[in-house]
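Sequence in, structure out.
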Amino acid sequence: MQLPTYRTDSVDQRAFARDVRRNVQAYFSETGRSTKGTVGLWVKVVVMLSLYVLPLVALIALQLTGWWAVASAVVMGVGMAGLGMSVMHDGVHGSSSRHAWVNKLLGSSMNLMGSSVLTWRIQHNGMHHTHTNIDQVDGDLDSRGLLRFSEHAPLKPIHRFQHLHAFFFYGLLTITKLVVDFQTLAEFNRNGMTKAQKVDPQGAVWRLVGVKFLYLAIFLGLPLAFSALPWWGVIGCFALTHFVASVILGTVFQLAHIVEEAVQPLPDARGVVAMDWTVHELHTTANFTRTNRLLGWYIGGLNFQVEHHLFPHICHVHYHRIAPIVERTARQYGVPYHHHPTLLGALASHVRRLKALGRPAVA
């Protein structure tokens, strides 16, 4: 696979890339704030872990059945999504703490969801963040044919009404990842990306087997053995937890890049994208509902995707403060700064984009 490079002759683009970093750094220097997490981050860690784990404890300890069991599964799904967005995400990016072991610990919370930290780090941190919205490179555009996220991908009959059924498929994200992680890891082992992370490929496979086994033993095995639910009720609640978490995660991720304003450029024959990388990120990324502090708290600042893509090493608790700096600098240099003021507006734009991508006009 040839990875794109980013080059430009534009003096303004290079100046923007320089100044936006300089201006954000000046903010932290002048205020004396750390770029890493605050006490509030640790409160969030406790809240999200509690939302995820305590319903499982209650299901078994209180022998919940019926609608109480269903409610516990829903709350677990909300907690799982929150744990992924607010705790794991920053940890894997190394932005939670100045201490590597703390970041590793928080990032390893992904194991509690039965997923691979290694494959996420390669696919998300490496490919998605570096080559955002580049077809066949950014893995977030690959829906394995069921959905069409890229205007450069083959158009199939199933895509025609994808704007109607997409959210159901989003709901399969985490439960399919239980299996797909093995396929993804095998691909990374073949193309050398695992070794590039200084990880032994064979050891990575066995660790992944161990993670999956422990996850299933705890979150499926324990309820099967000790809860008051019949086996089909346990499996139903397990699936519901994953569905709720996946709909939240899938929707939040897509609102940043699969919206009408976010472009999907292609490299030229030499593999070059004719744009400064920083400017490329603003062309391909969008924010949404920046003023909704409660939503931003829950989703780990992922409504500030522009800032996150430019400064993934900065903890999300600071995004609402640096966003005006990034926007002001972008306006100064004529660089687009995409933002949907409301959640409904962002959702509507996403649905319209999905509809357009399902029609031949965009092919």
